Amino acid sequence: MRSVTPGVLLLSRAHGGEAAMSEIKKLEGQTAIVTGAARGIGAAVAESLAAAGATVVLTDILDEDLDKTARRIGDRATKVYLDVSDENGWKKVVDSTLADTGRIDVLVNNAGILAFATLEDTDPVLFRKLLDINVTGSFLGLRAVIPTMKSAGSGAIVNLSSSSAVLPHNGTGAYAASKFAIRGLTRTAALELGPYGIRVNCVMPGGVNTPMTNPQGLSQEDLATRFRFVPQQRGCEPAEIAAAVLFLASSDSSYCNGSELVIDGGMTAGLYVAGIPGAPGQ
Ligand SMILES: NC(=O)c1ccc[n+]([C@@H]2O[C@H](COP(=O)([O-])OP(=O)(O)OC[C@H]3O[C@@H](n4cnc5c(N)ncnc54)[C@H](O)[C@@H]3O)[C@@H](O)[C@H]2O)c1
Fold it and tell me: Given ligand 1 and candidates 167, 210, 213, 227, which is best to mutate, with the most ligand atoms within 8 Å of its CB?
């Protein structure tokens, strides 16, 4: 992915698109709240929603990065400090957003943390913290926007689950548990809120090139060597997830509710078996 600039989504040949350029203004006049928007997937989502015409409220606990992302987006961005596990913080974000724009059309529950440890070595304090941020944080977000979306009779909520909620791997017990929980939260919310015109869906990314999965800042090529078991033979860029979030946030997905969109280059489609035709490199 080359870049995402305000108002314009560029798809690169390297990632399967033609060098197509298209104006997307699907969210003109709408307001979106994005959590964990300082960097990584959240920042890409915020850029993409703003490019589609939304006023975006960027929230995070990383002040400096939040500032940089908000400045990059420009006029369509406002930033608010929010620890997603803080219920009062959510009230403040919703109140200030309604005071500023009078509406909340989209919520993207993106903030999350990851920890690597076997279950035996996972400190219960860390387990609780991870669930508090990844699961309770999303629940609190949902709960905070329900009244205003209900009275508007519309809304779109997108939660970040993970391919780990389809095919978990060792050393990520707390994280996988949290991302399975997001599926349950998404489906229940879709059932309860669908009758009010509110759609709730989740995305399930595979390996995305962000500080979470690539803290050392490896190059694309080096990173790709870690993803040889993925049919597409690479990890993905945040903008590729942001494109799917934009789809689920906009009326392009008007009949998607309770859906779980896997975006993992085929990682969870199945397994390659060495020695049987069809595996890469044979
Ligand atoms: N990177 C991947 O490969 C991948 C794959 C599947 C799912 N995801 C999910 O996507 C989401 C974004 O991940 P990312 O890769 O961009 O990670 P990241 O670490 O780059 O960004 C996460 C953001 O969440 C923020 N955050 C952490 N705790 C917070 C809290 N208590 N309150 C508010 N903000 C908080 C961080 O400050 C950071 O800006 C997460 O939910 C993650 O689980 C990521």
Answer: 210
- Round the average pLDDT of the chain to a whole number and report it: 92
| CATH number for the domain that contains residue 188 | 3.40.50.720
Find out whether 133 and 85 touch, Cβ atoms under 8 Å: yes
Task: Determine the distance separating the centroid of ligand 1 and the alpha carbon of 212, expressed in angstroms.
Answer: 7
Q: Report whether residue 230 contacts ligand 1, using a CB cutoff of 6 Å.
A: no
CA distance 9 to 121: 43
Residue span of the structural domain in which 191 resides: 26-263
Domain presence at residue 85: yes
Is the CB–ligand 1 distance for residue 115 below 6 Å? no
Total domains in the fold of the chain: 1
Question: Would you say the CB of residue 132 lies under 6 angstroms from ligand 1?
Answer: no
In a domain, residue 277? The reply is no
Stated as kind and residue range, the H or E segment containing 125 is helix 124-131
- The helix or strand, by DSSP H or E, that contains position 223, with its residue range, turns out to be helix 220-225
Q: What is the pLDDT of residues 206-249, one digit of tens each?
A: 999 999 999 999 988 898 999 999 999 999 999 999 999 999 99
Residue pLDDT, tens place only, 81-125: 999 999 999 999 999 999 999 999 999 999 999 999 999 999 999
Any domain includes 11: no
pLDDT more than 90, % of the chain: 88
Q: Is 175 a catalytic residue?
A: yes
Residue 6 included in any domain: no
Place of tokens 């989504």: 9
